[in-house]
Amino acid sequence: MVGMIGMIGIFWFLPDLSDLFYASTTDIAFAQKYGEWLLSQEDHSNVWEKLKQNGYLHYLPKRYRDEYWKLPRGRVSYNILLGKYYVYHGDWFLIKHAKIIEKKFELPVNNIVYEEDEHYSNTISC
Fold first, then answer.
1. Helix (H) or strand (E) holding 84
2. Residue 2 has pLDDT above 50, yes or no
3. Where are the domains of the chain?
4. Mapped to the 3 state alphabet, what secondary structure does 17-74 carry?
5. SS3 category, 99
6. Residue 77, beta-bridge partner list
7. Class of residue 52 by CB neighbours under 10 A (exposed 0-12, middle 13-18, buried 19+)
8. What does the alpha-carbon distance between residue 37 and residue 63 come to, in Å, rounded to a whole number?
9. Across 56-66, average pLDDT
């Protein structure tokens, strides 16, 4: 993994999908290996609770603060065998969101697979 670029982790977008609300990034050198995958040890539920405890969620409209799944969210993982980053996202994801993720996670654009995952599509509308 020496010399690899890019990060893995989880992210949320703002309710209006204009930008990231929060991203938890992990350098790939510190990733957790799980089979053929490199994963972040962070999950949306635990990070949301930390954000709640730190008062970070007060930036959101009240109706989004209760549950982590109410905001558009996703995950970036790395497949060791294929040598590619996978960005898992909901049905709300557009090209403009890909550009934001590529920049935040410092991803090499020729090594990314974007995959819609219904797990990340259960958000509430603005």
1. strand 84-89
2. no
3. 7-120
4. CCCEEEEEEEEHHHCEEECCEEECCCCHHHHHHHHHHCCHHHHCCHHHCCCHHHCCEE
5. helix
6. 86
7. middle
8. 35
9. 95
